[in-house]
Amino acid sequence: MRRSAISSYFSKSSIADLEPFIHKRVELLCDSLRSQSRKPPVDFHALFLAYANDTVCAYSFDYSMNLLEYPDIASNWKMTINAIASLTPLIKQFPWIIPVVRRIPGWFLRATLPKLERLLSLQARINLEATKAIEHYRDATDHGKSERKQVETTKQKPRFLHQILESNLASSEKTAERMSQEAFSIIAAGGETVARTLTTMTYYLITNPPILAKLRQELQSAQPDPMNPLPFQELEQLPWLTPIGMTMMNVLHNPIVYPSPQTFDPSRWLDLSPDSPENQIFVCYGKGSRMCLGMNLAQVELYIAVAAVFRRFDLELYDTERLRDVESTRDCFSGEASKGSRGVRVRVIGEPEQ
Description:
The protein is mainly alpha-helical and 354 residues long. It has 16 helices and 5 strands. Helix 2 runs antiparallel to helix 3 and helix 6 runs antiparallel to helix 7. The relative contact order is 0.14. Mean pLDDT is 85; it is low at 150-158.
């Protein structure tokens, strides 16, 4: 029921209207990469996480975290997300930990358990946004206005939360606590999944020069001017750009269906029919009632970001190892690299001419 209340928010038509906004975010992404490249290396996970979180927050809650403009804050945000991932298995087994820790003063947590303090601070901020949204909704209702109309004229409130408040969900599903849980899931999942995919793509493209060369040639042909980006509808038709995003770690490593599944081989997806076993079984977004709600938003974010970064920049890895920094070795709700990982770090070695 809750899914049906917000599914239209992430529909294809809604995300299509959002495309100009995503292009602007990608411009900020490229500006941030160019700026950070003056003091290499660049932590690409932090960079892409900033891009994904700024995008999903600005779209869903009408405010941006501005992580792309402040790399130091983006680095702290990455540590917050890592803290959430590392604490998730523990909290799932001992759910009483969070209510108990909330009683501890913030200053003490910052000094002793900074990761946990970041998590609680994020939850508190989201809860405050949910409370404000409820107050605005009640005020609008009291004055005989629909919440949607008030949003269109004032744009004061988090839009994702309004979608829930205007739905037919039961009142118990519209409390500040319940809505903040939903919002927290959107932020955590909508940022980390896109960032991890982009980071992994970057690693495998740089370490496979022949494949990178084919992608670059394709992008240069389709987009002669690197500063004049293509619309998503044209990008998703590019033969090499599309399968680049389909070759992901730890997704359906069945050698019967996918020979040499550990090999980064985007060509395996070329010239396949929609009914082929490879396409039918490929379910990185899930299927049915549990399919990823943000699939359409993620697809547009991925296509536009990959096209922009690899059309505009020549990159090389810096002290990055596959087993240490890329392979998933820990189950923390999502797959995480080893505890000793230094991240996928990259240096910009040039910007191709037009």
